[in-house]
Design goal:
This is Restriction endonuclease subunit S. Helix content is about 30%, strand content about 20%. The chain is an alpha+beta fold.
Length: about 450
């Protein structure tokens, strides 16, 4: 779908974050565009969640990886179809969007009803632009920066752009059409990544359960998650071969964005840096170093090598340091298989938990150190091209998202005129298909406690 280009005439907006506007656009405060809705006592309505990229959607309570029994639903706020709901603490990240149906959001959310001159989908796009989210920070209030909230009284004072209503509708139609193509692209890349990951796991699984010699005699492993292994391999308890370093329950009041020791939380598991620091004394028994193997003990029990700097390990995580018989590299290959078995067996209506005792009881079949090194080298060689392909696909997803973000900014601020655009049959997309635009689990802010997360 071609974009016509810039508008013919512009005027000064008076706003530093968008200096010029099409001459017939207005700037109004949000209180002129929205009314505050505070309605409770509707426990039979579906629960809604907010994606940082695609807005509000109905929560799939049946297929959640992390389930929670909802209580006191009568205290949750009703958002009528077309209302905008936003997470007071995370709107600055894009946790805002129009409700697709009548539903419920946490008391920690604000719900606003659009007046006739406001298309809530247009404003959902506008509110998630980087420039507007910076404005949200300016209007938010709190004791400390990372606990700031955007209350209704502040939200209604914020200025917003106001194209004529027909133009708002046209902008929404155009951006949804673009999102249709982008969502298909991302879905195809994710499907490719899934296939590549499965191929990689098959290589690892065969290597750590059968070894590299196809002629070797096998024996029963005696381990419930594993059948046969090479007969010369030894079965060891991880509790005797590995030192387990448990995370420490640090005081969240000491968390700081800039000052102190890097603090690794579950959300940092696959990163090379941490989101927060501990502005307090170092706890020696919680120290981890570059290359340590760390395990998330909630949810999916994920495992990763820590690639960041020396840091402190937060609670609900543990670090595994081999001290004899098994190398860190080999343990990193085999332990995800055991933890997946435990995870699949764990029945829970809430977040699944793993204890250090569960880890200590695990048994592994291992070859001698020389064969471990050979297996690790084989896996690295065989999976290197697969890892490269996965990295390329992930980079392509990142680039298409950056393109989308730039396009949205240009269109919703009037720097690009899309009034002449006409959607084609291929541009039609439903909200389910648009879910591919979302990031993975961390993209969703979930109803629940005070900060909008479970």
């Amino acid at each position: 779908m071609a974009v016509a280009g810039a508008y013919r005439n512009y005027r000064s907006s008076g706003l530093p974050w968008v200096p010029r506007l099409p001459e017939d656009w207005q700037v109004l405060r949000n209180g002129r565009l929205f009314a505050h809705r505070v309605e409770t006592g509707f426990p039979d309505l579906p629960i809604l969640e907010v994606s940082l990229r695609t807005g509000v959607r109905v929560r799939d309570m049946e297929n959640l990886k992390r389930k929670q029994v909802m209580s006191q639903k009568e205290k949750y706020k009703r958002a009528a179809k077309g209302d905008i709901a936003y997470n007071m603490m995370r709107m600055w990240q894009g946790a805002v969007g129009p409700a697709p149906v009548d539903g419920l959001v946490s008391p920690a959310y604000v719900v606003v009803k659009p007046y006739d001159e406001a298309n809530s989908s247009y404003y959902s796009y506008l509110f998630r632009t980087a420039a507007y989210m910076q404005e949200v920070n300016k209007f938010s209030r709190g004791i400390v920066a990372d606990r700031n909230r955007l209350y209704w009284e502040s939200f209604k004072q914020m200025p917003s752009l106001v194209p004529p209503r027909p133009e708002q509708d046209q902008i929404v139609a155009y951006l949804r059409a673009q999102d249709a193509h982008i969502a298909r692209f991302i879905k195809n890349k994710r499907d490719l990544i899934k296939l590549l990951t499965e191929q990689k796991l098959r290589i690892i699984d065969h290597a750590v359960t059968r070894g590299l010699d196809a002629t070797v005699t096998l024996k029963p492993s005696g381990i419930e998650w594993l059948s046969e292994v090479p007969e010369h391999w030894e079965v060891v308890h991880i509790g005797s071969a590995v030192q387990i370093v448990n995370g420490y329950p640090f005081d969240s009041g000491l968390f700081d964005a800039f000052v102190g020791h890097p603090l690794v939380r579950i959300r940092d598991l696959n990163r090379t840096h941490t989101e927060v620091r501990l502005n307090g004394p170092e706890v020696p028994e919680a120290v981890i170093n570059t290359g340590d193997l760390i395990v998330g003990m909630d949810g999916d029990f994920n495992v990763a090598r820590w690639r960041g700097e020396r840091a402190l390990l937060n609670q609900r995580m543990c670090c595994l340091r081999p001290r004899k018989q098994i190398t860190t590299e080999y343990l990193a290959l085999i332990i995800p298989k055991a933890l997946k078995f435990i995870n699949d067996l764990t029945l829970s209506t809430t977040v699944k938990h793993l204890s250090s005792g569960d880890v200590k009881r695990l048994r592994f079949p291992i070859p001698d150190e020389t064969e471990q090194l050979q297996i690790v080298a084989h896996v690295q060689a065989e999976t290197a091209p697969i890892n490269d392909a996965i990295t390329r696909a992930e980079e392509e997803i990142k680039l298409i998202r950056e393109y989308r973000d730039r396009l949205i900014v240009d269109v919703v601020t009037g720097q690009v005129d899309v009034r002449g655009s006409q959607p084609s049959p291929d541009d039609v997309v439903d909200d389910t298909a648009l879910a591919a635009l979302s990031d993975d689990p961390e993209d969703v802010t979930e109803v629940g406690d005070d900060d909008g997360e479970y």
